[in-house]
Input
Amino acid sequence: MGAPSRPYGQNNADNNPRLMLKETVFSSFSRAKAAIGSKSSDSLKIGLIAVGIILLVAVILLAQPSSLNKAMNECKSQVDSEQWSDEVGEDGYFQLADHGHTLTVSGLDNYDDEILSCVFSELNTPQSVQSKILHTRALDGTLTDSWGRITITWNFQPSEGLDIIFEEK
Output
């Protein structure tokens, strides 16, 4: 298993996709510069155009925030700031990781939680999925469902509460 991801709201320079993209751009242009003496002019132009197109697509894809990240940002503006600071982050119930592609809810003991309700709403979580989650018993074990680009896994233990993992593909 790799190094743990930083919780929502914290930077992780070692796994920052923008920094990795800068390194890739620098590396690609360094290789292209080195190739100037060894390749024909036309081959070099085609190679540089291809690298440019790939980098443009990568920048566009990286610039798009994940739907989980968007949902958390939207919910932050809708929920009381004290509740948000108590429930979101390293010591809270809600932690955003994997560059915004995973949202983990750990040990939630209140199914009526305002943040969870907001996340469900912002992600357009089907009512059927919400009902399955709210009616899960300990003996049901870990359950999974999905819609759109979201896969959700959850379980419930009376002594530990509700655990949910939202994953965006």
